[in-house]
Amino acid sequence: MSLFLPKLTCKKDIDEVIKGVAEKVVVLRFGRDEDSVCLQLDEILSKTAHDLSNMASIYIVDVDKAPIYTRYFDISYIPSTVFFFNGQHMKVDYGSPDHTKFVGSFKTKQDFMDLIEVIYRGAMRGKMIVQSPIDPQNIPKYDLLYHGI
């Protein structure tokens, strides 16, 4: 569990953050506090939060407390990290079929910091999708699960 990152515990809180944070990337980490991979990701997020404070606001969301967002973003694997800018969902081309979220933990702090910088710069230029700067070897591989199809 990350003691240094703010937690969003309901849909209303998440909505307020997405709509209320201006000119910064909103980072929402969906997962569970007791999951070891989530804890690994939380450590990276908390260590970089101060350095990225001019570009990003980072929040923790428990998938069990926000089921509407969990379903909406099809969060089948945790942790999953979703990005917004000025109320708009930012997509990233990781070289995988899913551009809506980053699944798993970042390998290094620098990978996360580089990604936030690319999202921020792209969003400031009006882009809604950006190319991931992360080495493809550092991006976790997974299969998409489509529920109800």
From TrEMBL:
<dbReference type="InterPro" id="IPR004123">
    <property type="entry name" value="Dim1"/>
</dbReference>
<dbReference type="GO" id="GO:0005681">
    <property type="term" value="C:spliceosomal complex"/>
</dbReference>
<keyword id="KW-0508">mRNA splicing</keyword>
<protein>
    <recommendedName>
        <fullName>Thioredoxin-like protein</fullName>
    </recommendedName>
</protein>
<comment type="function">
    <text>Plays role in pre-mRNA splicing.</text>
</comment>
<comment type="similarity">
    <text>Belongs to the DIM1 family.</text>
</comment>
<dbReference type="InterPro" id="IPR036249">
    <property type="entry name" value="Thioredoxin-like_sf"/>
</dbReference>
<dbReference type="GO" id="GO:0005682">
    <property type="term" value="C:U5 snRNP"/>
</dbReference>
<comment type="subunit">
    <text>Homodimer. Interacts with the U5-102 kDa protein subunit of the spliceosome.</text>
</comment>
<keyword id="KW-0131">Cell cycle</keyword>
<comment type="function">
    <text>Essential role in pre-mRNA splicing. Required in cell cycle progression for S/G(2) transition.</text>
</comment>
<dbReference type="GO" id="GO:0046540">
    <property type="term" value="C:U4/U6 x U5 tri-snRNP complex"/>
</dbReference>
<dbReference type="GO" id="GO:0000398">
    <property type="term" value="P:mRNA splicing, via spliceosome"/>
</dbReference>
<keyword id="KW-0507">mRNA processing</keyword>
<keyword id="KW-0539">Nucleus</keyword>
<dbReference type="Pfam" id="PF02966">
    <property type="entry name" value="DIM1"/>
</dbReference>
